[in-house]
Every structure is written in C-alpha cells, then in structure tokens.
C-alpha cells in the first residue's frame, strides 16, 4: 500500500474470547485493511485492536467493527478496571505513510458522521479533531463514564459533535479523532496496594506536574494480586519509554516495591524500542542505521 493509515479502536470487552474473535473476524473481512495486533486484557475488560490500511480500508473496517460489536457488548452489565463510556470506546486515526494529519482529521469526521447516522450513537471528536479545547483530552470527555453520561449529556457544553443528545442504552458514546503515534505502556508493581500505583501515576503524569507527554493511572490487577501504572505516552520522542520506566521504578523502590514487568499494548515504532536498548546498554554514538533492518529498508530492500 502506498497510502497507510493506522487505526487503533478500543472495545469494552477483554474476557470473552469467542466474542472478541467474532468481532475481529468481521472487522477484518474487507479490502485494503489488515489487522496486525489484538490485545485483550481481562482486568481492564478491554481489547485494543491495531489495523493498518488505506483511508477507505480503515473507514469501512470501523463501520464493520461497530456492526459486530454493538450486538455483543452491553455496558449496563460491563465491569472492568479501565474507564469507559462506550462499547466501542475510542477510535483514533494516525497518519503513517502517504497520508497527512489533515487527511486523518477529515477521515475521523467522515467516520464520526457515519457512525452517528448508522448506529444512533453520540460521537465526540477528540485530540486533533476536537471542536473545542475541552474535548482534546480523551479523559476529559470520558469523565463520568457510561454511568454518568445520561446526566452529563444534558449539559449543552457536552452536546455531541454528531448523533443524538441521548446516550445509547447499551453502547453508550464514542470518541473518534486523529492523533499522533501513541505508545500504550504499562509497568506492573509487586504489591496489591493500588494506592501506591495511584500515587505514582499522579506524580508522573503531566496534569500532576510530571512528564510532559505522559497520561497515567493506577490500576489493580485483581487476579494477579498486583497493581499497575498504566500509561499513554503521547510523544515518545520527548517522553521516551525508558524515562517513564525509570521514574516509576525509582518511586516504587523508595517504598520497598519492585517492578515485576512491563506491557506494551498494541504496537510501537521501532525507534522507540531502539531508544530503550540504547539507554540501558549505553551504546556510544549509536545510530538507527546500525540496525540492519533499518539500513535495508532505507535502501528499499
């Protein structure tokens, strides 16, 4: 494909494997789009789907995603650690190759209008597609979650950008927009005390005075009896993975807590992972071209 757009929809189901499989299969059943990664999380009760394709390919795939998801997920009975307001909770479009941010913004608005018309779901434009500054931050839109939205949506300030000013009874609302590449990265801590993860998350996220391009929350992983600092790194070139990891590790160790491991949700650019390797290995004068896959790609091989 000469033109490549990434789309990373999140659905509010991470436990029923058969349901996830049916949704993914129906979403992938079309031209000009490929699904590269499916990441379900039982504690979050959420699945992140990563697809790449042409603008037309990902547009049509998103419509198929809604067709498959809405009959399968009822938020009235949904429980999970991750905040959510919709069965299909968020749909971001990211320009990768041969496409611009302006084109992805236009695509997000086209898809938003189509979702509202076809499925009678309130749609909010977010990030670079947002219609006002209050809607740029997804957390701000999602505040109150599904249970609080029937009252929230009555406020004229929260009138949807598309669709009815009434929450869908089972599917809720959805945020659709265009954004830069985002890395979803989690750090698991060896403690069952979620207040420790909460405290660390508050300190490292930008809104709390922490890392400029970091959004973070503390999450309890009940089945494993541990906690997690769950993050979105919205500009990995300025807030790299290693920086967030080292800060969390230091704060945890000061309380006698160790890091058990990390999770990469969805996909990430190779350079973001090269930076991690370079930081911990202290490679002198490291260049990306020293990675032979990068060198071959630059030569068209």
Number of helices: 9
Q: What is the makeup of the main sheet?
A: 7 strands, mixed
From the spread of the alpha carbons, the general shape counts as: globular
Number of strands: 11
Notes on the protein architecture:
The structure is a single chain. This protein is an alpha+beta fold and 301 residues long. The chain has two domains: 175 residues, Formiminotransferase, N-terminal subdomain (Formiminotransferase-cyclodeaminase, Chain B, domain 1, 2-Layer Sandwich), CATH 3.30.990; 86 residues, Alpha-Beta Plaits. Helix content is 34%, strand content 24%. It contains nine helices and eleven strands. Strands 1, 2, 3, 4, 5, 6 and 7 form a seven-stranded mixed sheet that branches. Strands 9-10-8-11 form a four-stranded antiparallel sheet. A hairpin with a 4-residue loop joins strand 3 and strand 4. The radius of gyration is 19 Å and the shape is globular. The model has no long low-confidence stretch (mean pLDDT 96).
Q: What's this, in brief?
A:
This protein has 301 residues and is an alpha+beta fold. It has helices at residues 17-28, 55-69, 101-119, 138-142, 145-152, 194-204, 241-253, 270-281, 292-298; strands at residues 4-7, 10-11, 33-41, 46-53, 88-97, 123-127, 174-178, 183-189, 214-221, 226-233, 259-265. The protein has two domains: 4-178, Formiminotransferase-cyclodeaminase, Chain B, domain 1; 183-268, Alpha-Beta Plaits, CATH 3.30.70.
